[in-house]
Design goal:
There is one protein chain. The chain is of the alpha/beta class and about 280 residues long. It has 2 domains: about 170 residues, TPP-binding domain (Rossmann fold), CATH 3.40.50.1220; about 100 residues, SIR2/SIRT2 'Small Domain' (2-Layer Sandwich), CATH 3.30.1600. It contains 8 helices and 11 strands. The protein has a 6-stranded parallel sheet, with helices on both faces. The longest helix has 21 residues. The protein is elongated, with a radius of gyration of 20 Å. It binds zinc ion.
Length: about 280
Amino acid sequence: MFIRLSRKGECGVMKDSETKKSIKQDAARIAALLTDSDYPICITGAGVSTDSGIPDFRSPETGLWNQEEAKELSKPGAFRISELTLDEKMELFWRVGYKLGKKIMKAKPNKAHKILADWEKDGIMKSIITQNVDRLHQKAGSQNVIEIHGNAFEAKCMFCGGSYRLKDVMRRYKRKKRAPWCDVCAGFIRPNVVMFGESTPSETIQEALVEIKQADLALVLGSSLIVYPANYLPVIVRKRGGKLVIINDQSTDLDKVSEVVVNASITRVMKEINKALN
Ligand SMILES: [Zn+2]
């Protein structure tokens, strides 16, 4: 079995035994960085939740937004500019989104989420800034979590902004098989998440910046660092003299400026770091 694994300045193909040894060494280095850090924070992306059964939106093979039906919705500004009418778009959105919504509702935190929650309790990790909308960090017990893409458990009316629980709205969709609309104004209801081409609310960016400005170490987990603003947050940490560690299944643009880069399973690496800390 071969796994591609790269570290700062080197990359190549290794045997599994070499990979194991290398992951152990990298985990020890990451544990040392965490121990030395006064204010470590974590930035998480879809890769943290794939072991909980939630598909990565952008992975080349299985990414949700690469599936034919969902492509229309992955275009920047999908809710504004498109050949489809709003009615057609909302029907398509719910057809695709309902399946994903069900997966998210049922998903359980995995070992990586649990380790991060333990680290917060033990004072090893200060906060998490996440691109994920699945609430798995909170389900695992983390409290200081900033969701820069919103969360999928809340829904809102696109016209009056009225808020709903997604669970209730999904029940309505299941019954009627039609995109649900608002009780007050009959506007369309959608999950309260930031879609492609939409902006993170400025209050959320401000909350994230409070953490970013204090951080002297950012552990980036399972993010391809393609989507703004998530890809810019670690850049700010670096510019202010902080260090970066990246654990992801693929390389990222920030690998070359990171202290340690591990391209391997996140849960596997997190378990090793946890062992090295204890
Ligand atoms: Zn409304």
